[in-house]
Amino acid sequence: MSFCLVANESVEDGIKRIVSEEIAQAIKEIDNPRLKRTEAIHEVRKHCKKIRSVLRLVRPQFEETYQFENAWFRDTAKGIAELRDTEAIIETYDSLLDKFNDQVDRRAFAPIRRALTLRQKKIIEETGDLNQKLKELRARMDKAAGRVADWNLKVDGFDGIEGGLIATYRQARNTMTAAYDDPTAENFHEWRKQAKYHGYHMRLLRELWKPVMRPLEKEADELSDLLGDDHNLDVLHKTLLKSPNKYGKKRDIQVLLGLIDRRSAELRVEAKTIGGRIFAEKPKAFGRRFRVYWEVWRSEVELPSKKLTEEPGVVTAAA
Predict the structure, then answer these.
(1) What is the pTM of this model?
(2) What CATH number does residue 106 fall under?
(3) Which of 18-27, 120-129, 248-257 has maximum average pLDDT?
């Protein structure tokens, strides 16, 4: 179906369906021989993040199961994170120079890019056989798939998701404040993670009121992209500083670091504007608003189920 709850199923059925579909899609991508092995690994990581966001939505309902499954999918993605980071660093380098293309001589930075590419190849070699790595990931996904049917959610309806929805929103809101109060890379990365989970929740609830939810989902995605780009710039910055002699002339490295800092500052300004709008409401008010959306949505589904029956001179509604 799709990555969203639908009106004709319970919250428990919807959560199980969505997670099962994400696992199945991850396995399908692992099994696709036409998909680059590094790209397949990237896709598995994305599915793991989406599954963890689903778990957060209903976390208050099964805390013990949440703790186990969240750790399972976190560790599955964590084991392949470095491979994705090496590729993201090169993409970030290219994007950065595209941004400042009219202000720099790209040829001067060519040794830096070559060194980043060699670093990526070395890490891939040290990782070992990517097909074997994917085989291990597939086995973990298969095991997880077998557990989903046994999940048991205690509460249905909006009460079943309210706690997780509000808690995630509150965390995203609080980590935004922390990031600008103390603008460290770690604080912005934490905000990015929480904002990403919130964005997934908007996608999960898109059917509540599509004309409203789709723009909210889009804005959350844009915010995640901005913060993701900022995080990747930080990873590039730290990579260059860790062993600067490997990447070229000191002067060129310093210029590139300056461009990284400049672009990071721009991204954080943009993110503050979007984040300020997304997280303007207090968490309880946010929860009340979404409860109304949910209740109206469900009432729209229930009304068509009543059929009009006619008797001579009488029109009644029968369930």
Answers:
(1) 0.91
(2) 1.40.20.10
(3) 18-27
